[in-house]
Amino acid sequence: MTGQVRGVQLARLLGQWHALPSRRRSPDYAALAGTVRGLLADGRLPLGVRLPAERELAEALRISRTTVTAAYRQLRETGHLASRRGAGSWTMLPGNHRVASTGLWTPLDDREMLDLGVAALAAPPQLLTAARAATEDLPRYLGGAGYHPTGIIELREAVADAYAARGLPTSADQIMVTSGTQHALDLVLRLALAPGGSVLVESPTYPNALAALAGRRARITTHGLAADGWEPDLLLGSLRQTRPKLAYLIPEFQNPTGHLMPASLRERVVAAAHAVGTDLVIDESFVDLPLDGTQLPPPVGVYDRHSRVISIGGMSKPYWGGLRIGWVRASAPQVQRLAAVRVGVDMASPVLDQLVAVHLLADADAIVAERRVQLAVQRDALLGALAQRLPDWRVTVPRGGVTLWAELDGPVSSALARAAEEVGVRLAPGPRFGLDGTMERFLRLPFTLPAADLVEAVGRIAAVRYDLDRTGRQRWREPAVIA
Description:
By secondary structure, the protein is of the alpha/beta class. The chain has helices at residues 7-14, 28-42, 54-61, 65-77, 126-137, 153-165, 181-192, 207-215, 232-242, 263-276, 332-343, 351-362, 364-389, 413-422, 451-471; strands at 81-84, 88-91, 114-115, 175-178, 198-203, 219-224, 246-249, 279-283, 309-314, 326-329, 394-395, 403-407, 425-426, 428-429, 442-446. Strands 4-10-9-8-7-5-6 form a 7-stranded mixed sheet, sandwiched between helices. The longest helix has 26 residues, at 364-389. The radius of gyration is 24 Å and the shape is globular. The protein starts with 6 loop residues before the first helix and ends in a 12-residue tail after the last helix.
């Protein structure tokens, strides 16, 4: 169970729920039940959350209790609500349908495949220069064993300087270098979360984070993101009600929605987390990629006075995913404890890769500026193609990051992904970014491919979307028999 949503909170989520006037007007109770089902399907209303009592919701919506009673009854009949006398009613999906979060990574074996499943750019041209310079620096490290559990000092100082430039004073002792951001998250979970511990995440969220949490057998609760981002009262209410051990948040150009958390909410989240004893794991993977001159709020760690914020980041998004360099920023004692945990996992990151990262960070201003220009062009090309070929899809223009979160014209995300694969486009369907089979109306579309490829991909997607409505039931392949 993820806690309880109050009447005023649910009323705000429901918005304009009333049945529209028409020749065949549906009853208000049916419109109310249908809107609740839509919130569940889109992931904005979590599963397992207790809904407000009938009288409380009726007062919040200023309608009769009879209407709410009838709506709750219909939700129970359709399998979207479970009730127990004296205990309340909880949200669910029919048949307790669940979809596992297995991540999105698949090898790129087919060079003709337009892969929109991976939100990452190709390597910048400066990578080769950095690699050559790194090999010239390597000899001074060859006299030792090569194990640096927290990372080589040059890289830790460079990362610490980058935090300081963002307004968060940081020393090298507060930085631990990891083999990518995912590795950083895994180590933090090993240190801070016992198996079966409770974690609050956004919905939708990064699927590989869900996979890491599943590996710890975490009890996951969710905060559903609205069309314009986080609902402050609901997010803070979830922290206070569920009191999770950890909360995993992506405040900078959230993956997959692209939302940017405002400074005021960052401060309130840190204060609420401290009050209930929750540690915040802040994923800053996209912090280097604001577009259109967007000004970034201060880092979440600026508001931390009690070592409640652990920040993770890395080189994958602004530089290259093949350079497996990430980091953790935490208090110096936490970094030492992470290093002790790491020794039982992989000992240390490769020295040569770390030296390459040092040289890339030294040229960060030029490299990242070029990336931002490239991404803005590709984003606009993708938006233009969607507006032309799929005008019924709704997309909020992100102010940074590398992804669009598209609301489709129907709950067809998984079917569309299967069909698109047949025409050479790999997609990441909405349910991969949530729990329990929700978000079939959504699709993540990264704008990391060249503009021409993005336009071509949208054309293929539009064609198969049209075919889905014409061909009827999906034909499933029979598995091949090997004897």
